[in-house]
């Protein structure tokens, strides 16, 4: 992965590089839900709330300070803290799965409505005007820490986003292999048994949810930086649906799955967007339904199951 | 005095809107424990049905009160047959499938009508209250919301179908052991819930206009109302609508709509922290 | 009337029924005796259609009902009085009875049925959930009768019931069997109750019929010990 | 009182109109093995759920090793040292047998020690050959063993076993009895079981519950001679 990443800017043109940068940022977002839902078993339908909060936190801070380092840090912290707060109410109130899904979805939709109605001079944070549905244009992009004048060029941004993707991917792998991670998976399998073994289920879920919120915020920061623009659409139903579809298509319980799902669907969305043959929502709705009804486990786990059933001669070890 | 009257009207209006947009969802949730994520799109379809019918010369009242619920009711029955029934007992898959359905509806309506706002003029005029004026049509909506709750109450209490519905809701297996067919009850429930949602969509079309993504504007409030209400269809909807409608309208009146929305959400999250099964999960147990 | 061959069923992943064979002729009162966890309740739930059959066959009145839905079996005339009674707690006693027969003329039917259960008459407008265990048991039987079944499956009607009402239950069941000629299958761990009522007793153990006894044999010391599990051979 | 591992005082729980457990006073001594029997609905499993915090009592207190644990969270009670094998095995279907034991052992032990405990328990319950298989595919009997092993790996001070012999063959029942006696050398246990043969293999003192209350407490021999106990088992409705 790292080798490919380093080689890419040499062979791809500027437009392709920008495309790949945004794809990578979205993969980080996909990973955040793949972790929270696929491993933590937390049905979060509102991952875009944290993504959007990250984007707005970056936008507002960057405009106010004219420097991106603090903005990027806040873009991770603000959604993480918000996730912790929301998570506290949900997990310590012992809301069931379905309620959790609906509440998180409602939260992001209310953010959407809220941000849409912040047009006008009254809605500003310091120098930063929120601008309602028009969004915040011309945001300062990422600069070298401590040197606001030295902005990152597209190639550097690409490297940076790829580096974050690798760090998040590897970091989640390490986390899942740790004691904490294995307890998280055990909670997904059977909450009651975990409690009977003495593990605090609520606390573990809260931590997973908070980490997921922070990662989604990072993706939001990279997204806002990529277009130097953020609008309430980061909270929209379409946005939050997309994240769910990535994970469903790719498969729950893997980290590669959401990345693959994200890449396939992003590619599809880009292609559909340019040719206007059929409405994107229509196609997405059909894919969504098809996967839930026909391939409920998603691509990666289904392929793995196929692979496990097929007689692979190199994997057969006779114990005798 | 005028202010008090207008404020009361605003609050009743907020409550009535919540009742209208959430009662269909509440029926489906209360009876089947299914949360229909395409609920917002059912509202949207109701709006389009009313507008298209009106533009084709149908009387606006007939379009809103007859055509919209009929169209959406049929859509609901078809959706139950093709999707919900297949996933019966798999709650999360049902949620996801209805989400797919929601995108599908948005897509298909956008393809047909385009991504622009359609609307019809609100019938009736307005009424002067001292220095203020209130819309007669909104006054009628308050009446309709109250009437819907009353009709549901009577239907559940007094009719044979209502008895079967209440029995199946309490214990579907025992109802089946007595010869009641739960699949048929569920199909009917989903149809009735969808039809009421279509009715709400039709009635709200003159006020807010319709566009393919209008569902998102309503649906969060509807979910919050139903979940906070708990499983009792009538008591839950009425209690949660009254609470959130008042919070929302009062905050909106004295501050801004933004704070009104945020206040509604905060009130719901606080409420669910205290009562995880909703208002009727603990209080008013066993009510309709 | 009811013919069961080699019935296998499991609860989740736990096998509960391991090849039950059972023949019930019209007019019989068959008692199935067994301890907790021996598969009594699962047997009735499988017969009623709430637990899927893994292997074997169920014939009711000559028709193969093995894979039919519960409500279809109920409409064929199979009645069910479940363990724990399963009264609709939020419905009134009258509505509970009306649930037993939702067709036309339900009111008259309810009035007629209640005559046989005088204890329920003053309670008709009470919520089902507010009744005592014994009253609920009578209501569950009355509700089942409202549907006019030809064969009734009873699941431990004496569980958690006061002795005085158990005597009343004996009388009610005797009337149903002798005067109304209903066919009855009753599962119980209450040995006395079965001995008093059944015309034939089957001993169920680990999901299979261990052997058949005459009601009189139930009072023999050897059988008693075997049932309790003290002197298992 | 100081040598009591567990003590309940007037423990009760009510579901709607039904009092499933009524004023239970129960004392368990250090290293004691107690069998809990009684007909269906006597309140045995409910009592276990109260002891592990899965249900909150409506009245009464639970004292474990001198600490009042009434109303504490399930995980907090488990941390104090109460382990339970539930009636229907409660397991992580997607995880392997080894992972089960490791998760239980690792909570109180460093990684190295947890691995050692895992291997030791695998040998002890005889599941070493299945250690890397997903538990979801195992038969009911084997699942019982996995759960027992998981409880042991956590090394709780008090072990509750709810129907440990259910669904086992005669040989397996005998092996389970052997294991229970062995555990009892170092741990206090309460065992709920319907299989009277199994109870006779392990029991010294037996508590009989009926309709939510403790009916009688005595040695196994005395219990079997007790007329009231016989009556409730035969359905003569005695004792109420």
Summarize the structure in words.
- The complex is a heterotetramer of chains A (320), B (288), C (233) and D (240).
- Chain A is mostly helical.
- Chain A has one domain (2-128, 137-307).
- Helices cover 71% and strands 3% of the residues of chain A.
- In chain A, the strands form 2 sheets. A two-stranded antiparallel sheet of chain A has the order 1-2. A two-stranded antiparallel ribbon of chain A has the order 3-4.
- The radius of gyration of chain A is 20 Å and the shape is globular.
- Mean pLDDT of chain A is 86; it is low at 311-320.
- Chain B has a two-stranded antiparallel sheet with strand order 1-2.
- In chain B, helix 9 packs parallel to helix 11 (257-274).
- The longest helix of chain B has 31 residues, at 2-32.
- With 233 residues, chain C is α/β, with parallel strands linked by helices.
- Chain C has a single domain (27-51, 70-228), classed as Rossmann fold (3-Layer(aba) Sandwich), CATH 3.40.50.300.
- Chain C is 34% helix and 26% strand.
- Chain C has 8 helices and 10 strands.
- In chain C, the strands form 2 sheets. Chain C has a 6-stranded mixed sheet, sandwiched between helices. A 4-stranded antiparallel sheet of chain C has the order 2-1-4-5, with helices on one face.
- In chain C, helix 6 (163-178) links the parallel strand 7 and strand 8 (183-188).
- The longest helix of chain C is centred in the C-terminal third of the chain and has 16 residues, at 163-178.
- The model of chain C has no long low-confidence stretch (mean pLDDT 86).
- Chain D is globular and about 50 Å long.
- Chain D contains 9 helices and 10 strands.
- In chain D, the strands form 2 sheets. Chain D has a 6-stranded mixed sheet with strand order 6-7-8-3-9-10, sandwiched between helices. A 4-stranded antiparallel sheet of chain D has the order 2-1-4-5, with helices on one face.
- By secondary structure, chain D is of the alpha/beta class.
- Classes of the chains: A mainly alpha (320), B mainly alpha (288), C alpha/beta (233), D alpha/beta (240).
- Chains in contact: A-B, A-D, B-C, C-D.
Kindly state the percentage of residues in helix of chain D: 25-40%
- Describe the sheet with the most strands of chain A: 2 strands, antiparallel
Helix/strand structural class of chain A: mainly alpha
Query: What integer value in Å does the Rg of chain D equal?
Result: 18 Å
Sum up the overall morphology of chain A in one term.
globular
Topology pattern of chain A, helix = H, strand = E: HHHHHEEEEHHHHHHHH
For the report, how would you describe the main beta sheet of chain D? 6 strands, mixed
H and E order of chain D? EEEHEEHEHHHEHEHEEHH
Largest contact between chains: A-B, 49 and 48 residues
Tally of alpha and pi helices of chain D? 9
